[in-house]
Design brief:
Arc Repressor Mutant, subunit A, two-stranded antiparallel sheet, mainly alpha, 2 strands, globular
């Protein structure tokens, strides 16, 4: 179990940032509907402890009912709009982090 020194304040701050990110992304003029839908899906699976999520493209596609190529395009849309940071690790699934100018 993760030990905390902040009584959950960091997690609460993250959840507030996640809400603000979704509001910002929903009106972002460079983000496609596909990108927003994928970004929202990913954001809802991030927790306040590590503030990221890690899912394979294949699993995201299965859970969203999309093709793997559509997921890849959605990730590209989010990256192009500078709204998500993807950390790719050799031989492991990618980690996804929210990004916005006010973070």
């Amino acid at each position: 179990m993760l030990k905390r020194n902040d009584n959950g304040e960091a997690a609460a701050a993250f959840y507030d940032k996640r809400r603000l990110w979704a509001e910002y992304a929903s009106t972002h003029d460079r983000l496609t509907d596909r990108g927003f839908r994928l970004g929202f899906w990913l954001s809802r699976r991030m927790n306040g402890d590590d503030q990221c999520c890690w899912y394979s493209v294949k699993r995201i596609a299965k859970e969203m009912g999309w093709s793997a190529r559509s997921v890849q395009r959605g990730i590209a849309d989010l990256k192009a709009a500078n709204l998500i940071i993807v950390v790719e690790k050799q031989g492991k699934v990618s980690e996804y982090y929210l990004h916005a100018p006010f973070f």
